[in-house]
Amino acid sequence: MYSIGNLSRHTQVKIPTIRFYEDKGLLPRPDRTAGNQRRYDDTALKRLLFIRHCRDLGLPLTDVEGLLSLEGASGGDLNQAHEIAERQLADLRDRISRLRSLEAELTRISKACDGKHDHVCAVLHAFGDHNECAGPHAHSK
Amino acid sequence: MYSIGNLSRHTQVKIPTIRFYEDKGLLPRPDRTAGNQRRYDDTALKRLLFIRHCRDLGLPLTDVEGLLSLEGASGGDLNQAHEIAERQLADLRDRISRLRSLEAELTRISKACDGKHDHVCAVLHAFGDHNECAGPHAHSK
DNA sequence: TGTAATTCCTCTAGTGACTAGAGGTTCAAG
DNA sequence: CTTGAACCTCTAGTCACTAGAGGAATTACA
C-alpha cells in the first residue's frame, strides 16, 4: 500500500496531478485510511505509470482514457489502440517538420545582426517581417 | 481604417484573439466610432502582424511583449532581442530532438501488433511499459 | 506516551493562449 | 428605411495541470 506521496515518488507524477487524474476518472478512487487518506495498491501504480507514459508520448488525456477503456478488450476493439498510435505518430511527424522550418528561420533571424547592434537591429525587423520567411509556417502547437 | 473584422482578415488573427491582445496590452486601444466600434490603422496592422509572426515562431506572449517594448530602442537594449531569438532557438532544438525520440518509440509501438489483433494487442502493452523505450523521454511540451 | 515534523486533506484560484456563446447594438447595402 | 451582417461586452470553457490557504492525520523519535 502506498500513500499518495509514495505513489508520487514511484511514478514521478506530482501529488496534485494524481488527485487531478482521480477527479477526471482516469484513476479509480482509492481506499482511504480511517483518517481519510488515500492508500494505493500495485494496480493503481501500474495504471498511473501507463497514464504517465502515454502523456510523455504526447497523447491527450482523452486518448489515454480511450486506451484505458480497452483494457481486457480483444479483436476489433484493439484496432482503436492501433489507430491512436498511428494518429499520434502522424501528428508528431507533422510537428517535427514544422518545427524544423521554424528552426531554419530562427537561425536566420538570430544571425541577422550578429555583432552589429549599433543601429537598428535586424532581429526586430526579421521578427516582424513574415515575407522574409522561406515558406509559410503554422503554429507550432 | 479597418474594422476588427477587416483587420482579422488581413492578419489571419481571429477577432476574439485581437480583443484578447488588446486586453493584455499587446495592442494599443484603438479609436472607436461614434457607435463604439474599433477602427484600426496601418500601424496597428503592422503591430498585429509582428505579434502573429512571433507567435508562429513559438514565442510566448511575454517575450513578444519584450520585443515590442524594444521598438525604437538602440545599442545594448537590442541585445535583448538577440537573446530572445537565441533562447527560442535553443528551446526549439531541444524540442525537436525530444520529439524525434518519441517518433522512434511510437513507430515501434505502432508496428508492434501489425496485422495480428487476435490476442492481446502489443500496442497496449507497449504504451504501458516504459522500460521498452530506447531511452528516457520527457514531456513533449 | 508526548510532541514535533511531516504528510495529508479539501477547496479555490491561477496559468497560457485563446475560444465560444449569450444577449444586445451599430453599421452598410439596397 | 429596413434588413442582415458585423460589432459590442461579459462570462465561462478549454487543456493539463500547478499553487496556496487553512486545517487534520500520520510518523519518528525521545
Give structural notes.
2 copies of one chain form a homodimer. Chain A is mainly alpha-helical. Chain A has one domain: Orthogonal Bundle (Multidrug-efflux Transporter Regulator, Chain: A, Domain 2). Chain A is 59% helix and 3% strand. The first copy, chain A, has helices at 4-11, 15-24, 42-56, 61-69, 78-111, 122-128; strands at residues 31-32, 38-39. In chain A, strands 1-2 form a two-stranded antiparallel ribbon. The longest helix of chain A has 34 residues, at 78-111. Mean pLDDT of chain A is 77; it is low at 134-141. At the A-B interface, helix 3, helix 5 and helix 6 of A face helix 3, helix 5 and helix 6 of B. The structure holds a DNA duplex (30 and 30 nucleotides).
Estimate the helix proportion of chain A, in percent: 55-70%
Using the alpha-carbon principal axes, give the shape of chain A: elongated
Report strand order across the widest sheet of chain A. Answer: 1-2
Total count of domains of chain A: 1
The overall average pLDDT of chain A, rounded, is: 77
- The fold-level CATH name of chain A is Multidrug-efflux Transporter Regulator, Chain: A, Domain 2
Largest interface: A-B, 54 and 53 residues
Can you count the helices of chain A? Answer: 6
% residues in beta strands of chain A:
under 5%
In the CATH scheme, the class of chain A would be Mainly Alpha
Q: What is the structural class of chain A? A: mainly alpha
Q: Could you tell me the number of beta strands of chain A?
A: 2
